[in-house]
Amino acid sequence: MNEFVVSEIKNNIAEITFGTPKSNSLPGAILEKLAQTILDEGAKDEVKAILVKSEGEKAFCAGASFDELLAIEELEASTKFFGGFAKVLNAMRNCGKIVVVRVQGKTTGGGVGIACGADYCFATKDSALALTEINLGIGPFVIGPYVERKIGKSQFSAMAIDADFRSAEWAEQHNVYHSVSENIQEMDEKLEKFLQTLASRSSEALALIKKVSWEGTDHFNELMPARIHMSASLILEDSAKKNIEAIKERLRAK
Questions:
Q1: 3-state SS, residue 48
Q2: How many Cα atoms within 13 Å fall on the side-chain side of residue 247?
Q3: What family does the Swiss-Prot or TrEMBL record give for this protein (predicted)?
Q4: Is residue 248 scored above 70 in pLDDT?
């Protein structure tokens, strides 16, 4: 499977799918394309809502691409990379359309950010989630405001510190997931009915719901430069590179 972002409008719903070979982890080019695609589809009058999903039946998103993180050697490139996550989340927040996210399996790091950037999120019972950035020697700084908005600062801090997986049930109880199904087939059946209903709703009403639900988040724009710099600078440390190599080696051994 090659890296890709594709979009298709079905019954007034823009379905955006991304995929990469390594557990749908996100390199910079895919982040940029995903952000722009969300904005482009959101600007279309006929689009009432946007569905964001990933390829396959296993991991939803493994966060940042390890290969790209290892290749980064200077601050400008690092800042651009982590800025890509900010662009995706800002696009979800500012596109003017309801964003639905479909989570079919485990998700970590930036993938958790995407789930938390959703206005409505579907998941399966296998969709455990974790903020694993501390294992690399950085932290979930860029996605932090979006995760905090859903689960609160205390729970966000705990996730960032222990890097443990939380169950899909936990994620539903803490406002990340809004529907949890036994399996992918059941989830997709529920999702299809939900999207059909959204397509029948008033565009103006949906846009206003989007607007009021994100009130009080304008300061996210002010936070981002400093948050991006935190991750961008830490990932350049030799210790971070060693951590990533060690994790890659463990994954290869499985």
A1: coil
A2: 18
A3: Belongs to the enoyl-CoA hydratase/isomerase family.
A4: yes
Q: Which two tokens stand for residue 42?
A: 């959101």
Share of the chain above pLDDT 90, in %: 96
Domains of the chain: 4-184 (3.90.226.10)
Q: Percent of the chain at pLDDT above 70?
A: 99
CA nearest neighbour of 24 among 49, 60, 50? 60
pTM, full prediction:
0.96
- The label of the residue with tokens 């499985």 reads 254
What integer pLDDT is reported at residue 252 of this predicted model?
Answer: 78
Q: What sign results for the dihedral spanned by CA atoms 55, 58, 59, 60? A: positive
Q: Which residues contact 189 (CB under 8 A, 6 or more apart)?
A: none
**Cα(62)–Cα(98) distance, integer angstroms:** 24
What is the pLDDT, as a whole number, of residue 190? 98
